[in-house]
Every structure is written in C-alpha cells, then in structure tokens.
C-alpha cells in the first residue's frame, strides 16, 4: 500500500470530504479553493474556521499547498495521486464523446497509418488535450524488397507488402557500394521473403547470411546488414509516435517558463527520443494507466499528466498505445473512459483488418 493510500485510510470523513471538494474544484477551475467556498459545499454545517483547520492538517500531510499568499489551497502531486487512486469516480463514456469517436474511427478504409492519424486527431478534438498514438510495426507478409542509391552516403530500401502497403526507409549504405552489389543484395533478400513478415525475415536473415556467405560478395552482405539495421533500430521497433493537438496543451499555460517546458516536451516527442520509454508504458498489462507530473520521466519536465492505454491485435498481443497529455488538473473522470474506449476501438479495427 502506498503512503498516499495509508493517509487516505486514516483520514476521517470530514477531512476526506474537504480534500475531495478541493481537488474536484481545482480540476474544474484550476484555481485555489478557499474555506468560504468549501463551507457552502460541505454536506454538514461547519464553520469556516473548522474548515481552515482541516485544510492546514491536509497541507501538513503534503496533500495541499498554498500557491499564493491567499488562503486558497490546491492539491500537490501527491494529493492528485491519492485522489486518482482512492476517490476518483470514473463515469461511463458519454453519448456525445462516443458518437464523435465512432464517426471518426468508423471508416476502416485506407492504411493503418492513416487510420491512426485520424485516431490522434479525434482524441485531441474530443479531449481538448494533446494526443499520443504509438503505431504498430507493419506485420503483413513482404512481397518485394529493393535498394535504391540516392548518393554515395544515402540509400533507400523499398518494402512492398502483400496487403499493398509500401514503405520507403532511408539508411547509410556501406562505403563502396555499387549498383550490382545492391541488386545482388535485393535478389538475396527476395529469395528469402516469400510468405514471411518483416519480423520473421529479421529473425532468420543473420543465419541465412552466415550459411550462404560464399554466395554473395562482401559488399552485398554489407548492404543486407545495413538494410537490416534500418528495420531493427534499437528502441524504435519500427514504431512511430503520432502527436496531435499540440496547440491545445500550449494554450493551457500562460507563463513563459511553463510554455518553454511544454515546447521542450513536444520537441523531444517529435524527435522520438523517448519512444522506448513510451513503449515501456504499454507493456505492463491491460487497462488505462495515469501518470501525474514527475511520476513518468517522459513528461516530468512539463508538469503534465498522461492517461494512456495499450491496444491489442486479434491475438491479444499489445502492439501499440493511445494516450492523452494534459495539465495535471486534467478531468480524469472524463478522460479515462475516452482513452479506454479508443484503445478498444483501435484494437478491434486492426483485428478486423487481419
């Protein structure tokens, strides 16, 4: 049991009600809450002085703090965590939000990337926050591979999948590569790929190279291995992070220092520095998870919260995730069912395709 949970269990009914009212009011308005406001909302008739005493006790416990000289209080990160774990009431997805998501995601036409782009845009619009979508690697069978030289230090690998999906990926070829070595590398790979997915090809390719090393010259072997490095880049796992609704999050803050922290967050995301970190969030089981402020390294600089849920394919394997980033005063009770429903919907759409 966490320290916050122990504190909640030991609180009396009055302290718990004062705490709950403060957090709910703060999540709604973003403003500090004073004792006079609370006395009008309490279920029992108590004086403002009594409420102030309770507020001071809660502040001593580390659940509240005073942002200004005023008597108003706001929850701390520890307070928000305790509220989310012990007092948050998560409602059902409301009909209007469900309709907006269904309308956007109901069309399962086009490629998976386009569909997940629409998911990100829909999540951002519905939640008025910034959305994150981690897309899965493409796992259809490969039909054809080709290497194209662009410059002495740049080449393109073209992957044509059996479902019609085409991917072009840049990589740095080995020094001294020639058109003939590139053709030989492509021929070698195309002889292997029939009926196999990219993951399966990755798994057998090194064994095949070793077994058939005498059949291809040194440059062709290096071309194959350079191409493999593009497919199996550590930490990225051929995944892509889609960020939508950046302006929504930037609009939430007016202070220049906070604005700069938010920009730093998104710059990091868009450069994919922390995709591996985001992937780890999705690999710890089903269900929606909530990270508040510094609880997750990826978002600690911005002081933001993340609500994230993995989505699964037809084999119940986690293949990606959807999430919403917002200020710590996020409306968690509304956002959690939206993220949960979206993750389930995406999983179903991907499963239907396969």
TrEMBL record:
<keyword id="KW-0678">Repressor</keyword>
<comment type="function">
    <text>Negative regulator of class I heat shock genes (grpE-dnaK-dnaJ and groELS operons). Prevents heat-shock induction of these operons.</text>
</comment>
<feature type="domain" description="Heat-inducible transcription repressor HrcA C-terminal">
    <location>
        <begin position="115"/>
        <end position="336"/>
    </location>
</feature>
<dbReference type="InterPro" id="IPR023120">
    <property type="entry name" value="WHTH_transcript_rep_HrcA_IDD"/>
</dbReference>
<keyword id="KW-0346">Stress response</keyword>
<protein>
    <recommendedName>
        <fullName>Heat-inducible transcription repressor HrcA</fullName>
    </recommendedName>
</protein>
<dbReference type="InterPro" id="IPR002571">
    <property type="entry name" value="HrcA"/>
</dbReference>
<dbReference type="InterPro" id="IPR029016">
    <property type="entry name" value="GAF-like_dom_sf"/>
</dbReference>
<dbReference type="GO" id="GO:0045892">
    <property type="term" value="P:negative regulation of DNA-templated transcription"/>
</dbReference>
<dbReference type="InterPro" id="IPR036390">
    <property type="entry name" value="WH_DNA-bd_sf"/>
</dbReference>
<keyword id="KW-0805">Transcription regulation</keyword>
<dbReference type="InterPro" id="IPR021153">
    <property type="entry name" value="HrcA_C"/>
</dbReference>
<comment type="similarity">
    <text>Belongs to the HrcA family.</text>
</comment>
<dbReference type="GO" id="GO:0003677">
    <property type="term" value="F:DNA binding"/>
</dbReference>
<dbReference type="InterPro" id="IPR036388">
    <property type="entry name" value="WH-like_DNA-bd_sf"/>
</dbReference>
<dbReference type="Pfam" id="PF01628">
    <property type="entry name" value="HrcA"/>
</dbReference>
<keyword id="KW-0804">Transcription</keyword>
């Amino acid at each position: 049991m966490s320290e916050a949970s122990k504190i909640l269990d030991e609180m009396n009914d009055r302290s718990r009600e004062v705490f709950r009212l403060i957090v709910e009011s703060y999540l709604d308005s973003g403003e500090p809450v004073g004792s006079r406001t609370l006395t009008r909302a309490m279920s029992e008739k108590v004086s403002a002085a009594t409420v102030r005493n309770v507020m001071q006790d809660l502040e001593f416990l580390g659940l509240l703090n005073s942002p200004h000289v005023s008597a108003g209080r706001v929850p701390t990160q520890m307070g928000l965590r305790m509220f989310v774990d012990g007092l948050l009431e998560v409602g059902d997805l409301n009909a209007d939000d469900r309709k907006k998501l269904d309308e956007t995601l109901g069309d399962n036409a086009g490629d998976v990337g386009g569909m997940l782009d629409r998911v990100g845009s829909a999540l951002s619009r519905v939640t008025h926050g910034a959305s994150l979508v981690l897309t899965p690697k493409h796992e259809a069978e490969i039909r054809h591979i080709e290497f194209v030289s662009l410059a002495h230090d740049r080449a393109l690998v073209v992957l044509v999948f059996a479902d019609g999906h085409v991917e072009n990926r840049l990589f740095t070829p080995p020094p001294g590569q020639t058109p003939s070595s590139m053709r030989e590398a492509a021929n070698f790979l195309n002889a292997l790929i029939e009926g196999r997915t990219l993951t399966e090809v990755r798994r057998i390719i090194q064994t095949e190279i070793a077994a058939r090393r005498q059949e291809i010259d040194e440059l062709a072997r290096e071309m194959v291995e350079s191409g493999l490095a593009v497919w199996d880049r550590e930490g990225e796992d051929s995944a892509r992070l889609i960020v939508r609704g950046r302006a929504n999050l930037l609009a939430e803050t007016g202070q220049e220092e906070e604005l700069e922290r938010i920009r730093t967050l998104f710059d990091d995301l868009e450069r994919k520095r922390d995709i591996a970190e985001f992937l780890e969030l999705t690999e710890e089981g089903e269900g929606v998870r909530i990270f508040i402020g510094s609880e997750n390294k990826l978002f600690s600089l911005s002081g933001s919260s993340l609500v994230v849920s993995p989505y699964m394919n037809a084999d119940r394997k986690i293949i990606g995730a959807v999430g919403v980033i917002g200020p710590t005063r996020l409306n968690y009770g509304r956002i959690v069912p939206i993220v949960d429903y979206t993750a389930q919907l995406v999983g179903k759409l991907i499963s239907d395709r396969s």
